[in-house]
Design brief:
Blueprint: E1 2-7, E2 10-13, E3 18-26, E4 33-39, E5 46-51, E6 58-60, E7 68-73, E8 78-83, E9 92-99, E10 113-114, E11 118-123
Parallel strand pairs: 2-11
Antiparallel strand pairs: 1-3, 3-8, 4-5, 4-9, 5-6, 7-8, 9-10, 9-11
């Protein structure tokens, strides 16, 4: 079992950047494929980015391609989400999630473990 804790959220102006971090404890992070999801008020949770166990493959939603970059450092048990050129529509609670055997990175119910989330607010 793994415990996930997100950090790095906050308030930023449109066009700015934030870097989210997901720290894992318990089992080593290299055992899991990882994903970032977000949920805005009144909306369903949506996939943002995913990364394979060794970091060799990454996946991103069309809405964030070219702006967000997911990476991982298994030695530090950390997954990062670098978010650039932020837009007000990126405002949401961002969650990291871990899965031992991934079927689809894009589907939230595939993931086994979730963090508590970190709030990202982008103002005009």
């Amino acid at each position: 079992q793994v415990q996930l804790v997100e950090s790095g959220g906050g308030l930023v102006q449109a066009g700015g950047s934030l870097r989210l971090s997901c720290a894992a404890s318990g089992r080593t992070l290299s055992a899991y494929a990882m994903g970032w999801f977000r949920q805005a008020p009144g909306k369903e949770r949506e996939f943002v980015s995913g990364i394979s166990r060794n970091g060799g493959n990454t996946y991103s939603a069309d809405s964030v391609k070219g702006r967000f970059t997911i990476s991982r450092d298994n030695a530090k048990n950390t997954v990062l989400l670098q978010m650039n050129s932020l837009k007000p529509e990126d405002t949401a609670v961002y969650y990291c999630a871990a899965v031992t055997s991934v079927g689809s990175y894009y589907i939230g119910r595939e993931y086994d473990y979730w963090g508590q989330g970190t709030q990202v607010t982008v103002s005009l």
